[in-house]
Amino acid sequence: METTAARRIAERFSRLPAEQRRVVYEGIRSKGLTLDQFPILPREDAAQDRCHVSYAQLRQWFLWQLDPQSTAYHVSDALKLTGALDVDAVRTSFEALVARHESLRTVFRADADGLAEQVIREDGQLDFSLLDLSLADAGAREAMAREAARRIGNTPFDLTRGPLMRVALIRLAPETHVLVLVMHHIVSDGGSLQIIVDEFAAQYRACVQHEAVVLQPMPIQYADYAVWQRHWLEAGELERQLAYWKTQLGGTQPVLQLPLDHARRPDGRYGAATHRFEVPASLVQGLQKRARHQEGTLFMVLLAGFQVLLGRYSGQEDIRVGVPIANRHRMETEGMVGFFVNTQVLRALVDSRTSLLQVLAQAHEAALGAQMHQDLPFEQLVEALQPERVPGIQPLFQVLFNHQRGDFSGLDGLPGLALEPYGLGAQAAQFDLMLVTDESPDGRLHATFSYAAELFEARTMERMADH
């Protein structure tokens, strides 16, 4: 469709009342047109400072109201910086990020009807702190820094007051610092962390070298996306995609029963522990070769292997695994900080007679189908399928697999600084078990089992990793 015509239709669509939007949507579908052919437009002036939340934000708001002290949905990272650090440049760089991205100056509240809304502040305030431990006892400094970093990462956010991004520097010595970044998931996700890292590096480099930073203008902001999402899904796209997922998952939603080392707690709250390992390079190469042979991806091969492993441990045949998807397939959202990530449920039927190739074929088909129906918010799927709710057990899936291909090489060029990762310690566990695989640009594959520490022993995770 010609760009000008698509924009005119999108503008008209955004101004229509709900019942007329449905009529226009049905007309668009009848002509064989799809959602991706119409642009996301800036929201109306009346919604500039407050508007609807996205569906993903709505669930985060609900979860936060249930447990405002939880840290399960903190997005955090930390780096150790060695060299001559310009603290003012760090602060200035993050202030520029807050000014550029509306999500980082957004808070949330219930409107007069009790419905959640996001409130965008015109002048965002950066939560920035500097803790100087350089004069503390040298033998205790590292322990004090780690305790401070954990405290910063585990301090709950107030979604109604903000700010919902926290930046802290911990000084161990004049040329040794720890940079801690913490955000609430309601305004950020893994893709946003990559954007923040890249833009911080560009801002800091320009600041210390006294140069102007050049970034592409933001075509829209996250609140524009939230309004667009609600309009299109309520017009009929939700029903279309929901029909696919109902067919995929069926009428019954089994709970994965992994053998636990300890009984579940009545309150369903668990701390997260991790077991990290690197997949041997020869095995990675073999998996990639198999993926190419099956016209698939490394993600599909790893998912199939994980589903087989879960089937063997649980003794069940119907294996459901939650998989986060970036949900940034539109050009307008590529460089934007916000909560875009969606969770999909990928199903495999595994029994003693099912070969690994057959499971891989299922994973291949499920992944491609999910990609074509990725706009349906997970929250809407839960609401439609109405699985039995059990305290402390996630609905629709209990185990998550997240395959990542991050590239933080932009930080390598920070003037005068050497960087290394800095662990923040345990947060609350979101799931019974989560497998995270990181595919690095050099072809290495790192894997991490994150698990509920009160349910599983460390040796169980070591055994599972060996398998």
Poorly predicted runs of 5 or more residues: none
* The CATH topology of the domain at 243-466: Chloramphenicol Acetyltransferase
Instruction: Summarize model confidence as the mean pLDDT.
Output: 91
Radius of gyration: 23 Å
Numbering strands along the chain, what is their spatial order in the largest sheet?
5-6-7-2-12
Portion of residues in beta strands equals 15-25%
Q: Find the CATH superfamily of the domain at 243-466.
A: Nonribosomal peptide synthetase, condensation domain
Describe the structure.
- The N and C termini lie far apart (51 Å).
- The longest helix is centred in the middle third of the chain and has 28 residues, at 222-249.
- The strands form four sheets. The chain has a five-stranded mixed β-sheet with strand order 5-6-7-2-12, with helices on both faces. A four-stranded mixed β-sheet has the order 8-14-13-11.
- Among the domains are: 3-39; 243-466, Nonribosomal peptide synthetase, condensation domain (Chloramphenicol Acetyltransferase, 2-Layer Sandwich).
- Strand 13 and strand 14 (445-452) form a beta hairpin.
- It is 39% helix and 21% strand.
- The protein has 467 residues and is of the alpha+beta class.
- The protein has helices at 3-15, 18-30, 55-66, 87-100, 138-154, 190-208, 222-249, 281-293, 298-314, 356-372, 378-385, 458-466, and strands at residues 50-52, 74-83, 106-110, 116-120, 127-132, 165-173, 176-184, 272-279, 318-325, 342-349, 399-404, 417-421, 433-439, 445-452.
